[in-house]
Amino acid sequence: MFDRIAWQRAYREKYPERIREYARRRRVKHPGAASAAAKAYAARNPLQVASRGAVRHALESGLLVRGECEVHGTDCQHGPVCAHHENYHRKLDVRWLCRKAHAQVHAGMIVLAEREPVYTIDLERAWSRPPMDPEMLTARGKAGAA
Predict the structure, then answer these.
(1) Between helices 33-44 and 46-61, what is the axis angle to 10°?
(2) Which candidate, 33, 51, 49, places its Cα nearest to that of 41?
(3) What is the pTM (predicted TM-score) of this model?
(4) What is the b/e burial string over 11-39, where b = at least 16 CB atoms within 10 angstroms of the residue's CB?
(5) Digit-coded pLDDT (tens) for 111-126
(6) Alpha carbons 59 and 40: distance in angstroms, whole number
(7) 96 and 123 in contact (C-beta within 8 Å)?
(8) pLDDT, tens digit, for every residue of 65-94?
(9) Measured between alpha carbons, how far is 83 from 126 in angstroms, rounded to an integer?
């Protein structure tokens, strides 16, 4: 069976100049096409965009810790581990999959086992923030009640 993805990867590695030149010509011929497509996707899929943003923010702030690939484990050599949402309403409940496993899940080649929501959050960092000033809380309460 022909592995198109492997062929594309090998082609890109063998001919990087051709790929760069094609991308440059496309940007010149269709200026703004990529940003227009991104805006259209965001308008069609606001929940997915918000979920990805929440995961990105949690990773950058250190609240969410990137795990290992749930399919291949720690010895995975199939690309970087990324977050896979099974339910976009639970923004930080993600499954950590390598690029290959993530593609296989979306293609229906792999079915992940059911599990309870697991949040890989660094609790020590999450709870180490200073508490809010009690006077600020009462000022908010008074302002809201008035």
Answers:
(1) 100
(2) 49
(3) 0.61
(4) eeeeeeeeeeeeeeeeeeeeeeeeeeeee
(5) 888 877 666 565 555 5
(6) 26
(7) no
(8) 888 888 888 777 887 899 999 888 888 889
(9) 19
